[in-house]
Design brief:
The chain is α/β, with parallel strands linked by helices. 53% of the residues lie in helices and 11% in strands. It contains 11 helices and 5 strands. Helix 4 links the parallel strand 4 and strand 5. Helix 9 crosses helix 10.
Length: 223
């Protein structure tokens, strides 16, 4: 199998030698990756990773379980282009969010398969981020609670929404239909449709869900 295109390959770190050897074989045979190096934890790990010039670091989760994930932060401080995949992680929201904040791009749980690890490495090597589906809700919840809220005047400036269109945004976020919005505002249903159509066009969205995603990414207050 041809080796996967990845800048200087994968650096693998795991405390257990058998695990290192097994993952090395899987990443080579199933993923087609070049393994730049594989080792256990050590004081000079950042130096070793930097010397290998690897594009992706696969790090056993137990090694990065300290508060605030200092090892990950140290590595990325020295090598900001490095993509880190943590494997064997606990299904714990706080730990997961700490890792995301530290700059981890891949998060693989303890019960993951070998192919889950291969797929995670492939994803981050292609500029993507990957996490277990059960962790996705935690990520959205954290983002929703931590994002700054945008005032109606900012929405008007940032998105070009009219006053009436601004009124529709929280109603759409609540899941109200055009008819229900029309009854709420005491206007014609067709008028609501026209407003929604213009709003979608202004934010470059194809449907309501996409428009709401744009607003949320900009920190708009939708309640």
């Amino acid at each position: 199998m041809a080796q996967h295109e990845l800048k200087n390959g994968v650096f693998l770190v795991a405390a257990n030698r058998l695990l290192r050897e097994a993952l090395t074989r899987v990443l080579r045979s199933k993923g087609g990756f070049h393994i730049a190096d594989a080792c256990g934890p050590s004081q000079d790990l950042p130096r070793k990773v930097a010397a290998s010039r690897a594009g992706v670091l696969v790090l056993e989760g137990e090694l990065a379980s300290q508060p605030d994930v200092p090892l990950v932060r140290d590595l990325l401080r020295e090598m900001p282009e490095l993509r880190i995949v943590l494997i064997g992680m606990a299904e714990q929201e706080s730990n997961f969010l700490d890792c995301v904040r530290a700059g981890v791009y891949g998060y693989v749980l303890r019960d993951a398969t070998a192919m889950d690890v291969v797929n995670a490495v492939r994803a981050v090597s292609q500029g993507e981020a990957i996490c277990p589906t059960q962790m996705t809700l935690a990520l959205f919840r954290h983002f929703a609670h931590s994002s700054p809220k945008v005032s109606s005047s900012r929405m008007r400036l940032d998105f070009g929404l009219s006053r009436r269109e601004q009124q529709l945004v929280p109603m759409i976020a609540q899941g109200l239909t055009n008819k229900e919005i029309a009854n709420e505002l005491n206007i014609a249903e067709q008028t609501v449709k026209n407003h929604v159509h213009r709003m979608l066009r202004r934010v470059g969205a194809t449907d309501r869900l996409e428009a709401l995603a744009v607003f949320r990414m900009q920190g708009a207050y939708l309640d």
